[in-house]
């Protein structure tokens, strides 16, 4: 979620982000085909895989985001509110359930993680610092890929998606803490070779989730401050939006749309801030399924912010956080995952 870096971004920014996110503040083919022959729409209950983090004493929260599958199959994720000195990028072995730290630094608040199909590196959006960092899958060779203003205004990069060539599409969630009518958010394309930023859409109500559809012809963009998901049809080279429309409206009450993943059949897995649930929609808007944590777990969990589906399988994993800590839950997706079936 900002390319403007304060002098010393200590607890003020992180605490503001922490309070906001845990209060519920920080989405082809036909629906029938997208459901899958052996799947029935409706209520689904996810199973606990592993507890990844506990609430941090310094920030008063923990918030898991950005699950993404590394080339070797490991599940990498970020802890948005981890303080300096504690792991900000972690890796989960989904077989052994082992959790190991990957990377940390002093002053970043990472909200999304994605592996580039171009160079295989892990890219991290720094919501608080406004840049996009990059490390190897092992957490080495830290570099800043992008920083600075875009068209004269700072950016709060929240989620990201890569096209097939490795160019980056980022949701700029500027205005996320203000009224919805003060729409200042953007969708920004960043070139893989030059890191040049191009604004594809502006004056948006704090866009959050972003993901390509299954054939990479368009983008799904979740508008956090409007509780809706828009669809953008892109020009041939991906540098402009040809058409756009409001595609899905989410009746979330005090909860709001967060990250989005898309499976091989074009279904959208819409994560939510303010509920420990994932809502699954067909590409033409049908509500196909709702995935919830077990009832006994729900009281200590506020948000299910992101989801990833292991490529070539229907093994889905969602990041869930709250007063009880940060967890990964697992469920059966409606269709197989692909490289880009990581919540962005």
Automatic annotation (TrEMBL):
Gene3D superfamilies: TolB, C-terminal domain. Residues 65-319 form the SMP-30/Gluconolactonase/LRE-like region domain. Keywords: Hydrolase, Signal. One of its GO terms (molecular function) is hydrolase activity. Pfam families: SGL. InterPro entries: 6-blade_b-propeller_TolB-like, SGL, SMP-30/CGR1_Lactonase. SUPFAM superfamilies: Calcium-dependent phosphotriesterase. Residues 1-32 form the signal peptide. It comes from the Bacteria. Belongs to the SMP-30/CGR1 family. PANTHER family: LACTONASE DRP35 (PTHR47572:SF4), LIPOPROTEIN-RELATED (PTHR47572). This is Lactonase. It comes from Actinorugispora endophytica. The lineage of its organism: Bacteria, Bacillati, Actinomycetota, Actinomycetes, Streptosporangiales.
């Amino acid at each position: 979620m900002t390319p403007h870096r304060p002098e010393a971004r200590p607890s003020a920014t992180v605490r503001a982000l922490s309070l906001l996110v845990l209060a519920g503040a920080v989405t082809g083919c036909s629906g029938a085909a997208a459901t899958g022959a052996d799947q029935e729409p409706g209520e689904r209950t996810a199973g606990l895989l592993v507890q990844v983090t506990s609430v941090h004493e310094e920030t008063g929260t923990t918030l898991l985001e950005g699950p993404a599958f590394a080339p070797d199959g490991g599940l990498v994720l970020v802890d948005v509110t981890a303080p300096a000195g504690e792991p900000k990028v972690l890796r989960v072995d989904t077989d052994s359930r082992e959790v190991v730290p990957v990377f940390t630094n002093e002053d970043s608040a990472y909200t999304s993680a994605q592996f580039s199909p171009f160079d295989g590196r892990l890219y991290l959006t720094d919501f608080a610092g406004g840049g996009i960092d990059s490390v190897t899958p092992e957490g080495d060779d830290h570099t800043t890929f992008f920083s600075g203003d875009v068209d004269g205004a700072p950016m709060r990069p929240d989620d990201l998606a890569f096209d097939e060539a490795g160019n980056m599409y980022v949701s700029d969630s500027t205005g996320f803490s203000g009224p919805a009518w003060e729409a200042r958010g953007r969708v920004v394309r960043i070139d893989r070779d030059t890191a040049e930023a191009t604004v594809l859409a502006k004056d948006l109500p704090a866009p959050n989730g972003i993901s390509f559809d299954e054939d990479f012809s368009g983008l799904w963009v979740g508008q956090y401050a409007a509780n809706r998901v828009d669809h953008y049809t892109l020009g041939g080279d991906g540098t402009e939006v040809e058409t756009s429309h409001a595609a899905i409206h989410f009746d979330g009450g005090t909860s709001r749309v967060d990250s989005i993943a898309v499976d091989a059949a074009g279904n959208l897995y819409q994560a939510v801030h303010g509920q420990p649930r994932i809502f699954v929609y067909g590409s033409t808007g049908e509500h196909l399924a709702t995935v919830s944590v077990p009832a006994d777990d729900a009281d200590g969990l506020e948000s299910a912010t992101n989801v990833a589906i292991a490529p070539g399988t229907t093994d889905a994993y969602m990041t869930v956080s709250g007063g009880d800590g940060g967890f990964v839950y697992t469920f059966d997706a409606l269709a197989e995952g692909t490289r880009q079936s990581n919540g962005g």
